[in-house]
Inverse folding.
């Protein structure tokens, strides 16, 4: 018996656990990954064979973009961007600040095809929050809409930032802004120049720089390579088994493309499958239902609050040809899954678990049967290994023991941007990503997320770092001390709650605290509940004991 078969024998077929190495191996078959080192994700996507015709549909206008149009537009835009005045090159950073639109994938793919690194920002962020990201990432190019232009730093601050408008036409008033060089439609119609000088882009080169909220202090830029994206594209396409489908599947994109899941699935992955992506610029239930019915949507990816709204509706909503709902962001409870199944028996629910640092999906349920394990995040993704590590002893634990989840796979980030210290505390030298989630894996290899070691507040799938809101509230002249915690809520998942210690003689009210924060942050970061206390519990090193405050807040529920 050779060494490889002996090693294989040591892995428990039921759970995927190997006692010798104390690691779990995915029970799913590995997906094939391209061996050519000189390959970028855009070339990889464009070269995939499929029978699809329409790539993108704008839900609001009905505008259709075929695959032929899409790849021609990407090549044209890349040719235009590589020439002056932008002269985009490998290693330059390009920012997209935009709601979902059919222009988003064209901008993203054109930039990445040149070896530029793509960074994205949430359109709800304030000008101040965007300025911080621009100062850190130093983009030379921003793709944005006319409406969002004022949120970009002024020319005096970011003097080498050029702007391409994600609009169809130029207006006379655009001429007054010297940053604007073109519209996306204009550059997309440039004749592709096969002779232009091309930088060689490899699988190990950086492709995206997505900002994920740090556990302490400001958010950090997560660098993913072309290899990370290519492997995640393969995992996504295998998960939906789209290659084997004899009809074109239609996905409705309700999730933001600036978020890792939206970017990897809708602005890249699915465009290699021949599926049609219907793009919703912002989520509203009536518009979502109209699109599902008008465009024959078969797959609906969403975040849990949308699912809650669908179940809470007095009568079943008309879902046309919809067959599958894909939920990400937070595991769904038993009542919610049961309630959905009862109301919409013809629709399967699939779930996914992932982080910005894992370039999207680290585990998922891929069938209704797998989703019936209530509370599970699913089986580990293909090509994935996991460890469950005791946070105190550092010891790797077996089946059914709770510890911090570490994962390893070809899609794990390269590291945090310009932040060696944070990278070293999150990535081990041999490639394990410490997720910061407390989890266990059961006898059948299903992953369960118990709690977040990291203290991020997850509001409708958006990440809110408590430290950022605490720093803001400490500036208030009447606040002596403060702690912000996640407060559980059926509809939004969690929202920020502040425990405030008033300064002597202050009569600060709850409303004043909330308004003070609301004026300075994006809507999803607002403090929505306030309690006044005499002191904030802290440990010996001065770290806030959030767990105690969470217990205090939820004991009254």
């Amino acid at each position: 018996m050779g060494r490889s078969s002996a090693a294989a024998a040591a892995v428990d077929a039921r759970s995927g656990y190997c006692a010798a190495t104390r690691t779990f191996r995915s029970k799913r078959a590995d997906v094939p990954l391209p061996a050519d080192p000189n390959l970028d994700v855009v070339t990889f996507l464009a070269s995939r064979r499929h029978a699809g015709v329409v790539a993108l549909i704008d839900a609001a206008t009905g505008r259709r973009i075929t695959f032929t149009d899409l790849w021609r537009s990407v090549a044209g835009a890349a040719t235009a961007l590589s020439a002056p005045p932008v002269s985009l090159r490998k290693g330059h950073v390009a920012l997209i600040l935009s709601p979902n639109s059919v222009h988003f994938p064209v901008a993203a793919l054109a930039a990445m095809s040149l070896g530029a690194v793509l960074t994205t920002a949430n359109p709800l962020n304030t000008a101040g929050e965007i300025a911080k990201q621009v100062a850190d990432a130093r983009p030379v190019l921003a793709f944005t809409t006319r409406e969002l232009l004022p949120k970009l730093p002024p020319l005096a601050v970011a003097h080498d930032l050029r702007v391409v408008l994600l609009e169809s036409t130029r207006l006379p008033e655009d001429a007054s802004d010297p940053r604007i060089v073109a519209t996306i439609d204009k550059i997309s119609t440039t004749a592709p120049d096969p002779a232009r000088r091309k930088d060689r882009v490899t699988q190990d080169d950086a492709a995206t720089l997505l900002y994920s909220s740090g556990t302490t202090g400001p958010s950090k830029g997560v660098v993913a390579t072309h290899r990370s994206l290519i492997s995640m594209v393969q995992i996504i396409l295998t998960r939906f088994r789209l290659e084997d489908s004899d009809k074109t599947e239609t996905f409705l994109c309700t999730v933001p493309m600036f978020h890792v899941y939206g970017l990897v699935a809708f602005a890249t992955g699915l465009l290699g499958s021949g599926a049609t992506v219907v793009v919703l610029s912002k989520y509203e239930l009536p518009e979502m239902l109209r699109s599902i019915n008008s465009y024959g949507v078969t797959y609906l990816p969403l975040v849990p609050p949308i699912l809650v709204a669908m179940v809470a509706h007095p009568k079943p909503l008309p879902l046309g040809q919809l067959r599958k709902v894909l939920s990400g962001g937070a595991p769904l409870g038993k009542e919610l899954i049961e309630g959905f199944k009862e109301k919409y028996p013809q629709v399967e629910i699939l779930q996914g678990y992932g982080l910005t640092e894992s370039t999207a999906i680290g585990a998922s349920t891929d069938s209704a049967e797998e989703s019936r394990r209530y509370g599970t995040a699913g089986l580990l993704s293909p090509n994935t290994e996991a460890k469950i590590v005791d946070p105190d002893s550092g010891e790797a634990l077996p089946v059914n023991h709770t510890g911090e989840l570490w994962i390893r796979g070809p899609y794990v980030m390269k590291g945090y941007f310009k932040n060696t210290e944070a990278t070293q505390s999150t990535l081990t030298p041999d490639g394990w990503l410490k997720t910061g989630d407390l989890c266990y894996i059961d006898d059948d290899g299903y992953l369960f997320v118990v709690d977040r070691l990291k203290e991020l507040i997850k509001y409708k799938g958006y990440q809110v770092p408590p430290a950022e809101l605490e720093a803001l509230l400490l500036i208030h002249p009447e606040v002596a001390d403060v702690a912000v915690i996640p407060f559980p809520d059926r509809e939004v998942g969690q929202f920020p709650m502040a425990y405030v210690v008033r300064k002597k003689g202050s009569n600060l009210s709850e409303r004043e605290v909330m308004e003070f924060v609301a004026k300075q942050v994006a809507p999803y970061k607002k403090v929505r509940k306030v309690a006044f206390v005499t002191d904030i519990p802290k440990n010996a090193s001065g770290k806030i004991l959030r767990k105690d405050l969470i217990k205090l807040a939820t004991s009254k529920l």
About this structure: The first strand starts at residue 17 and ends at 18. The chain has a mean pLDDT of 91.
